[in-house]
């Protein structure tokens, strides 16, 4: 039986929570040894076969009518990780060489994480419909926030391409990574993401929710007293390859491969590609005074003197005593490796 049913024959399967699919326990993955596909499908391919993944629980899709199937495209509306895996397996078996992902950052993470198990020859180019809560990748790509599936399908055939390399999370003993995303955070970032969920309930999304979360995190840090749990930080070991390892309590870790962050903030400094990390020591000093330089991307010598450290690294070994966030979803910590994956091609108008 084919894995991908006509859209009108499908129903939502499984419980969908938070950012789209019922969260699965992250599987462990060893140091990166598995190569990505040899080449990526391009508009010059003789035949373009398009597969569309709809997340019916994405913020904007909840109030929309059921999507209308587009002629010549395969459609899937998975309701769980298992359903998503079967849909992608069916797409690959049917020769799909371009994907449309209709959902938020969490949906994109889930699709990217599962797709390489199935597309082992030519990896599809990807078009993103920003229908989630923050849509950080769409912001970085400069996509219209009102982009439609039909417009994305047209862009696959006629539009341009931007490359972005995902951030990969590996665990000891893994043979392949099942976690690929674009924004990683630990320490206070986990709590700040919880604040973002609160702002969503009050109708704040995209850049506004990011701004309110930053404001809330700073307020908790500044006014909570020196020994509050925000300021005390979290014990962890951070060991960038080629740099000195740091072990002890850290206020926050933030990592990304995006070139542009929501709300125009620049926590890593000037805009650039590659894997970038911001590490803030526990008991952050002069946080209100440092905030303009920190978020504005300024190369201010007072930042590292006060415990705000930026660095670029191809690979970072971590040991976390608490959870971490990847594109809005919470995962268990422990020993981890962060690295930059091979570039993927994203369709733009």
TrEMBL record:
It comes from Sphingomonas qilianensis. Residues 93-176 form the DAGKc domain. SUPFAM superfamilies: NAD kinase/diacylglycerol kinase-like (SSF111331). It comes from the Bacteria. GO terms for molecular function: kinase activity. This is Acylglycerol kinase family protein. Keywords: Kinase, Transferase.
């Amino acid at each position: 039986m084919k894995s991908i049913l006509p859209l009108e024959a499908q129903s939502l399967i499984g419980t969908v929570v938070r950012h789209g699919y019922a969260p699965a326990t992250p599987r462990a993955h060893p140091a990166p040894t598995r190569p990505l596909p040899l080449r990526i499908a391009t508009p010059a391919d003789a035949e373009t076969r398009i597969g569309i993944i709809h997340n019916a629980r994405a913020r904007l899709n909840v109030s929309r009518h059921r999507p209308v199937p587009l002629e010549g495209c395969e459609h899937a509306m998975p309701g769980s990780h298992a359903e998503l895996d079967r849909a992608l397996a069916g797409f690959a078996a049917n020769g799909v060489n371009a994907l449309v992902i209709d959902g938020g950052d969490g949906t994109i993470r889930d699709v990217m994480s599962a797709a390489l198990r199935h597309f082992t020859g030519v990896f599809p180019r990807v078009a993103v419909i920003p229908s989630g809560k923050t849509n950080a990748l769409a912001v970085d790509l400069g996509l219209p926030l009102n982009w439609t599936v039909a417009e994305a399908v047209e862009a696959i055939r006629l539009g341009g391409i931007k490359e972005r390399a995902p951030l990969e999370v590996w665990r000891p003993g893994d043979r392949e990574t099942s976690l690929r995303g674009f924004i990683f955070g630990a320490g206070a970032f986990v709590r700040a993401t919880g604040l973002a969920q609160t702002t969503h309930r009050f109708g704040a999304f995209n850049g506004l929710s990011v701004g309110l979360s930053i404001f809330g995190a700073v307020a908790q840090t500044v006014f909570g007293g020196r020994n509050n749990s925000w300021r005390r930080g979290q014990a962890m070991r951070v060991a960038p390859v080629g740099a000195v390892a740091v072990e002890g309590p850290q206020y926050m870790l933030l990592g990304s491969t995006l070139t542009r962050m929501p709300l125009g903030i620049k926590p890593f400094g000037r805009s650039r590609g590659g894997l970038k990390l911001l590490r803030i020591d526990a008991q952050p000093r002069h946080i209100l005074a440092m905030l303009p330089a920190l978020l504005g991307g300024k190369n201010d010598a007072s930042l590292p003197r006060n415990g705000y450290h930026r660095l670029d690294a191809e690979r970072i070994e971590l040991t976390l005593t608490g959870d971490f966030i990847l594109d809005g979803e919470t995962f268990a910590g422990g020993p981890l490796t962060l690295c930059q994956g091979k570039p993927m091609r994203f369709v733009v108008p």
